[in-house]
Design a protein that fits this description.
The protein is of the alpha+beta class. It contains 7 helices and 5 strands.
Length: 195
């Protein structure tokens, strides 16, 4: 990536305050509409995603590849190859169907490398936040999406608890120590995953 090289520090970036972003995540969470909001507008979504992809292609050139989601709460994903990011890892930028539109970015994990915002430069996040603002989107830092989901929607992870309980009761499986992690979701599961 071009520009600054300081590692992301949310307090240093001029974007919406984290409390306001959290409030928006809760505001747009509609348990009756998991894949897209009731007032979803395909043309507006298509145009917004096209502007986002265009900005990424302008910055990174032909190393970007983009695709649309299906049966998902996200509209589309654009990926940038590792050799173009300048950080040695691929970059993934995703636009949700919700929030007029939530956008997040993260470095794609490799072997023994954690995934997430680690490695995104302050300059890139500031640039992407500006692109999002110009396109009518809201940039959501990945670390906020990793916070435990406490909204009203029933997400797929909730079914894991039921399946595990049935398997244990039927004698097909034994309870495991990490079973307390079953059924736990985060905000990424709500707005940027397959439903």
């Amino acid at each position: 990536m071009s520009g600054g090289s300081s590692v992301l520090g949310m307090a240093e970036i001029d974007m919406l305050p984290t409390d306001r972003i959290r409030a928006l995540l809760r505001e747009f969470d509609d348990p009756q509409h998991l894949e897209r909001p009731a007032d979803f507008d395909l043309e507006t979504s298509r145009n917004c995603f096209a502007r986002l992809v265009s900005a990424l292609e302008e910055r990174f050139g032909p190393s970007c590849s983009s695709g649309l989601g299906q049966d998902a709460s996200f509209y589309g994903v654009s990926e940038v190859r590792a050799n173009t990011t300048g950080l040695g890892r691929p970059l993934r930028v995703t636009m949700s169907n919700f929030g007029s539109y939530f956008v997040t970015a993260r470095m794609v994990a490799g072997e023994e490398v954690p995934s997430g915002e680690a490695g995104l430069t302050e300059e890139f996040v500031t640039w992407l936040d500006g692109v999002c603002t110009a396109a009518g989107c809201t940039f959501v830092p990945y670390e906020l999406l990793r916070e435990p989901y406490d909204g009203p929607s029933v997400l797929l992870a909730a079914g894991d608890v039921e399946v595990a309980a049935v398997l244990v009761a039927a004698g097909s499986a034994e309870a495991e120590e990490d079973d307390e992690e079953l059924g736990k979701s985060d905000w990424r599961d709500r707005y940027f995953e397959y439903m």
